[in-house]
Amino acid sequence: MSEDAASAVAEAVRTRSVSMGKITSVLELRISELLDVPHVIACGSGTEALTLALLEAGVGPGDEVVVPDRTWIATAHAPYLLGARPVLVDTLPGVSLMDPDAFAKAITVRTKVVIPVDLNGRLCDMPAIRNIADKHGIKIVSDSTQALFCSYPDGGYAGTRSRSGCFSMSVAKLIPAGQGGFVVTGDNTVADRLRMMRVHGTQSVQDTCWELPGGNFRLTDLHAAIALVHFNKKDELIAGVHSTYDYYASRLEDSESLRLIRYDDASDAIPLYPEVLCTDQSGLLHFLAERRISARPAYAPLHSAAHFGQQDRKFPYADFWGQAVMLPAGPSRNKEELGVVVDALTAWQRNKI
Question: Which of 85, 41, 83, 86 is nearest to 60 (CA)?
Fold first, then answer.
């Protein structure tokens, strides 16, 4: 969080721009320009973006929503909190992205929506997923919360090729606002519905007319002010993320005990969270913690959550969380800090030989 961001928040307070208002509108226009998408609907978090998009798509009790087993749990909590059943499917081997064939096999008469997730800067196979979804009349809501500004090989950005695409501006994302998110869409009708549902299903809180279900999904101008500062630094932030990953990639040698999960072409991805696979996850985390290095295990697979009722199912490719560690990262990491991490990892590898 830069001094520029602090100044932007102070100015918003001075001008009484606190609740959702003119600064949020400016932010939405800025994102629309950058992503080349007609409509941007800002909201309070990435989770709110997903929930709002599913609510607009008509998801409710009795529906099923297909979700990959490897993602941050918000992807599945959004349909769950609307009364729908998240149906978990396996990922492709070697990458934590939805397997289109697993999606196809999971479809039932109750399937309303599929949520492909562009995880950690990697893009899912949208053409294959779209082909299956269109064939069965299933709506697509993209979770691109970890893939802002990641582009497809043939052009266009993640999250812009579905009914709606969802993004996050939480503190650990590429563009941090502390908290915040937004939904993008190219459909005018969907956009109108999203804007109403964001404010309890009405077009005006002064002249209320309750047209749609909804809630308070609004972003504050305070968070919008922070986000605007960082969107104006997007190239610098993207370069910083690449620099962090490139440093790890150049310094870490793969071994039986430790292997960096690499990107086929990191130039097309934005690798937010460098991860390593190791033979002793808990041992590595303890080793790093003793040296005051903050790392964490990769996300637990969603089927491990008892409230989804799918603990007994098998997900052979998604269930590797007990081997993966997320390394210290971020666009502002310098080589001295990263060098401390790499030296510790190298020492740990030597102890394992």
Answer: 83
**CB atoms inside a 10 Å sphere around CB 67:** 29
CATH 3.90.1150.10 placement within the chain:
234-352
Instruction: Give me the pLDDT at residue 1, please.
Output: 78
**DSSP state at residue 34:** H
- Cα dihedral sign, 177-215-142-22: negative
For residue 58, give every residue at least 6 positions away whose Cβ sits within 8 Å of its Cβ, in sequence order, or none. 112, 139
User: Phi-psi bin for 174: left (phi > 0), alpha (psi -120 to 50), beta?
Assistant: alpha
Mean pLDDT for the chain overall: 94
Q: Which CATH number fits domain 234-352: 3.90.1150.10, 3.40.50.1010, 3.40.50.12370, 2.60.120.260?
A: 3.90.1150.10
pLDDT, tens only, 249-276:
999 988 888 999 988 765 578 999 999 9
Q: Write out the residue limits of the CATH 3.40.640.10 domain(s) in the chain.
A: 3-231
Query: DSSP letter at 321?
Result: G
Q: What is the pLDDT of residue 267?
A: 53
Q: Pairing relation of β-strands 181-185 and 39-43?
A: antiparallel
Residue range 122-157, pLDDT digits in tens: 999 999 999 999 999 999 999 999 999 999 888 899
Euclidean distance between the first and the last CA atom of the chain, given in angstroms as a whole number: 41
DSSP secondary structure string, 55-96?
A: HHTT--TT-EEEEESSS-THHHHHHHHTT-EEEEEPBPTTS-
State the Cα–Cα distance between residues 245 and 335, nearest whole angstrom: 11
What is the bridge-based pairing of β-strands 64-68 and 85-89?
A: parallel
The residue with tokens 């009722």 is 309
Q: Which CATH architecture group holds 3-231?
A: 3-Layer(aba) Sandwich (3.40)
Q: Whole-angstrom Cα distance, residue 115 to residue 87?
A: 10
Sign of CA dihedral 99, 101, 102, 103: positive
In angstroms, the CA 257 to CA 306 distance is 31
